[in-house]
Amino acid sequence: MSAPAVRRAVVDRDVCVGAGQCVLAAPDVFDQSDEDGLSYVLVDPLPEELTPSVRDAATRCPARAVQLEAGAGAGAETGAAAETGTGADPAADRQPTGPSPA
Amino acid sequence: MTETADAAGPPAYPMPRTCPFALPEQYARLREEEPLARVLLPTGREAWLATRYEDVRRLFTDANLSADRVHPGFPALLSGQQAIDRRGFLPWMDPPEHTTYRRMVISEFTVRKVETLRPAVTRTVQECLDRILAGPRTVDLVQELALPVPSLTICELLGVPYGDREVFQSRARLMTDRNTSGPDRLNSLVELRAYLHGLVLRRQAEPREDLLSRLAVRYREAGVEDAEHLTGMALLILVAGHETTANMIALGTAYLIEHPDLRDTLVKDPSLVPKAVEEMLRYFSISDHSTGRVALADIELGDTTIAAGEGVLLSNAAANRDARAFERPEEFDLSRESPSHVAFGYGIHQCLGQNLARLELDVVFTALLARLPDLRLAAPLAELPFKNDTIMYGLHELPVTW
């Protein structure tokens, strides 16, 4: 087998509401901008050991703005969907805008 | 006549609690048997009540549910809310208006920004405790600690000058005192609004290094030259951050006194206080009665349709004790891993001040347990005036001794 799939943490800053849940859940992965308070990703690609904290962040994010992307071009996985097994998560339909602040 | 379920119609809401730290007994039955139930509001209207964790989270994020208190279908618990000046009140707005104004204030409440308030909050808490320890050995902890801490913290946050704090404090106290008459309560709100309006005008004319000044600049940059709107935002920060935190301090203290094992654990290891705070938030869910929404379009949930125009109450208290989401939900458990509770709501309206609330509660309980570890109730628990009659759950008074 090849190396484990590269994962990326992604914040959709168009829907982020600045509650700071991702910073609490995964302080090594997310921070909030001093400028606008919206969250952004600190590490890309995501080190494997930080994956659980990003799932936690995705579950807790009230705007469902946090996603865990599995490799380039693959579909996004949200923590809520991963935990509950529901396929109807509205966040899954959105296109993430990228890991860094605009 | 014997009442039957059919003849009785839907159960009345709010539902009574039989134990101050337990939820209304009907919640557990509804959550299992009728997770989306019809209830009768005090206004005589009916609404839906959602009690399961997944349903509540799903509905909180539904764009077809509006938070607009002025909508005729909104499930108000009190009459007359429509008459309140709502300008600046984020929790009552829908997108795109909500998005615009929330974004103006988000950067003031980031995890990092809030942390910079810790020294000021600590000083406030220690000064309150100094006064308590210097006075008679029986005090009302609500008046001496629970209310002053958030009130002075908000003064600090908004940039209310020291000389004005007594005016601010006294009006805020009148607003939250149950002995204040209706007209006096309204008058104190009007006076606070007038005071904040004056402060807003001063900061608009001459910005300083404080939240109101920065907001004034942001409003201007966004082309909103509306002092009334900004005043509403300031009033929201006061109202939303004042009695809520005070209720959590009072309830948490009463709970710790009644649960000596838990209190001893925290006295021995204060690093567990944040975990205890998180569990208090889940356990008390004091905002249970303030999470109404109204459907703007038909919404399907399981086999049920919430029709456009109907009201829905999203019970975050019932959701936070749903065994599908929390193991042994009735237990107060410091070992829970992730605080995925919905005590601060969920969706775009989730409490913006939640990290400030966490900070205040952390500082208060850490200091209280260190300086008054032998605190006792000065009246039996059953006789304490719990707020069964208000929108936010809590305690009107908490007489304690040591």
From TrEMBL, chain A:
Molecular functions (GO terms): 3 iron, 4 sulfur cluster binding; electron transfer activity; iron ion binding
Chain ranges of the 4Fe-4S ferredoxin-type domain: 7-35
Highest taxon in the source lineage: Bacteria
Region span, Disordered: 71-102
Function of the protein: Ferredoxins are iron-sulfur proteins that transfer electrons in a wide variety of metabolic reactions.
Pfam families named among the record's database cross-references: Fer4_13
Protein name: Ferredoxin
SUPFAM superfamilies, A to Z: 4Fe-4S ferredoxins (SSF54862)
Biased composition range(s): Low complexity: 71-88
Keywords, sorted A to Z: 3Fe-4S, Electron transport, Iron, Iron-sulfur, Metal-binding, Transport
Cofactor(s) needed: [3Fe-4S] cluster
Automatic annotation (TrEMBL), chain B:
Protein name: Cytochrome P450
Source species, domain of life: Bacteria
Assigned protein family: Belongs to the cytochrome P450 family.
Xref: InterPro entries: Cyt_P450 (IPR001128), Cyt_P450_B (IPR002397), Cyt_P450_CS (IPR017972), Cyt_P450_sf (IPR036396)
GO MF: heme binding; iron ion binding; monooxygenase activity; oxidoreductase activity, acting on paired donors, with incorporation or reduction of molecular oxygen
Keyword Metal-binding: yes
Keywords: Heme, Iron, Metal-binding, Monooxygenase, Oxidoreductase
Pfam families in the cross-refs: p450
The organism of origin for this protein: Actinacidiphila paucisporea
